Amino acid sequence: MTSQMKLHLMLLLVAAVMTVMEAQQFTFSSPTPTPMTQQTLQQVAATLQLYVDPLPQMPIVYGFSTEGGNPVSTNLTIGMYPTNWKFHRDLPATPVFVYGTSAETATFPGPTIIARHGIPLYVKWENHLPDLHVLPTDNTISVANSTMGGVPTVVHLHGSVHPPQSDGSAFAWFTRDYKEVGPKWTQTTYMYPNIQPAGNLWYHDHALGLTRVNLLAGLLGAYIIEKPEVDDPMDLPSGEDDDLHLIIADRSFNTDGTLYMNSTGNVPSIHPQWQPEYFGEVITVNGKAWPFLNVARRRYRFRILNASNARYLNLSLSNGLPFYVIGSDASYLAAPVETQTILLSPAELADVVIDFSNSTTPCAEILNSAPYPYPTGSATTGTLLSKVMIFHINDTKVFDNSTIPDKEVNYANVTMPEPSTTTRYIVMYEYTTPSGGVTHLYINGLRLEDPVTETPKAGATELWHVVNLTPDNHPLHVHLGMMQAINVTEIVGYQQFFDCMTQLNDAIKCNVTDHAIGKTLPIPEYEKTWKNVVKIEPHYMTSVVVAFKIVDTNQSYPFDSTAEPGYVYHCHILDHEDNAMIRPLKFLS
């Protein structure tokens, strides 16, 4: 460890002690639970019989009204409520925080909002959560900390093109009945223009330092932008029985059915509770542990979201049927891609069709083979974590007028950037103690609170070279930006480059172009469209085209993107984002 890094760690220790002393004045977290061993958590998971609960679907809320047969703008009120949720037939009901149009209708995940392209939606987000959290938190990281009781929350519509006031800034949090608000809070109602291409989004909590615990508690839901003139000609499977969400999230449970989250950090002398990744022992889909779905011998559309905090998913079907991927994140592809496997990072979406008509088996499991942490962690093969859910396939074929189209949209392909394109180097760091315990993660060696360094212009396209100096794959998410990876190149002479970067924190001065010359990895065909999340391979440089505009029309935004509180970009492993792999993004006039 260099003297500079030792000094940095010493300063971090001092800051942590000061923060702990301040945090002792008040904490909204519930009392510290009795520690659970991984073996006990695995034993609880093993008591849950596979495939006994039917796959539920979330309530649908329409984000538009109709007048004279035409869609018009509307207003919704969606609240965050405490409730008890049955994750499994044999598990006691679990206290959770969830979204709903009322306390009685709130669900895990929250209701699916279906919006119409070009029709603005206004959502008033209300916080009805109690004084105490259902999960342990950590006040030694940068965190939204209520001084009057209550759980701070704020909502981000992931993948949406919207004004900064409606982005769900980490600093725009609010507690129950807006009793206390963060320094960037300005309004109760958010406006979503729905002007981007048709596709799949999702909404979730984004409060400073609490994203990982608030999502783990259940604050997440799906959002669709429909555009009939684009959707309908493709004749994809449609209707409430044939077009379904699969929202996958891992969770661990205590013996009493409550959600488990670690109460002790991996370096508790610095962060008493925070750990670098949360991995649950149970795989849930739409809020049920290892559910089943009865399907006919026909095509189905599944909008698959990995809503896990940190777990990657490498999905396949046990009977060898392929996935036909028609979209990735919030965009359709140029044409469907047939594949046996789909790798999804946290926060990543795959829009797929599965054709059960030619199945040679009466059932098909969705399997997961991704190690954790990804890509070099523990294997899932042969464990309960290798199973996601099961399809029971009816014997009789049925009439099916849906199709897998030959072509989809003409805006999916990326144009290689011009030499004059603004280019940035984005470097991901992980900081550890001398014994190897992870203490925090930064982008470009900076925190969220440090001065902004990424200042794009609305309507512009930039080229970001993202260098990963950590052992983990990181899902990069840029608010308001649509992205495509175009090149993934290995860093050669890695240790020399790493040592230089820890000293200088400057990719150009460390001659990154002389090191990013190793082998290249292919971009999966099913990811070749405009995305909201791009996976950043460890010890590689991933070159990403970032479009700060509406990609299907090539137009700039019809709102002031330069306004406060601005936007952010971050790693979407939630434990990393909370501490503190997140940076501000401020648009220039």
Structural notes for this entry:
The chain has 589 residues and is mainly β. It has helices at 3-23, 38-46, 211-217, 228-231, 494-504, 512-515, 574-577; strands at residues 60-62, 65-67, 70-72, 74-85, 94-100, 110-116, 121-127, 155-158, 189-192, 199-205, 220-226, 243-251, 282-285, 288-289, 292-297, 299-306, 313-317, 323-328, 331-339, 342-344, 349-355, 363-368, 387-397, 423-432, 438-443, 461-468, 474-478, 482-491, 516-520, 533-536, 540-547, 567-571, 582-585. Strands 14-13-12-16-21-18-19 form a 7-stranded mixed beta sheet, with no helix packed on it. Strand 4 (74-85) and strand 5 form a beta hairpin. Mean pLDDT is 94; it is low at 1-29.
Topology (elements, then pairings):
Elements: H1 3-23, H2 38-46, E1 60-62, E2 65-67, E3 70-72, E4 74-85, E5 94-100, E6 110-116, E7 121-127, E8 155-158, E9 189-192, E10 199-205, H3 211-217, E11 220-226, H4 228-231, E12 243-251, E13 282-285, E14 288-289, E15 292-297, E16 299-306, E17 313-317, E18 323-328, E19 331-339, E20 342-344, E21 349-355, E22 363-368, E23 387-397, E24 423-432, E25 438-443, E26 461-468, E27 474-478, E28 482-491, H5 494-504, H6 512-515, E29 516-520, E30 533-536, E31 540-547, E32 567-571, H7 574-577, E33 582-585
Parallel strand pairs: 1-6, 4-7, 6-11, 12-16, 15-23, 24-26
Antiparallel strand pairs: 2-3, 4-5, 7-9, 8-10, 10-11, 12-13, 13-14, 16-21, 17-20, 17-22, 18-19, 18-21, 22-23, 24-25, 26-31, 27-30, 27-32, 28-29, 28-31, 32-33
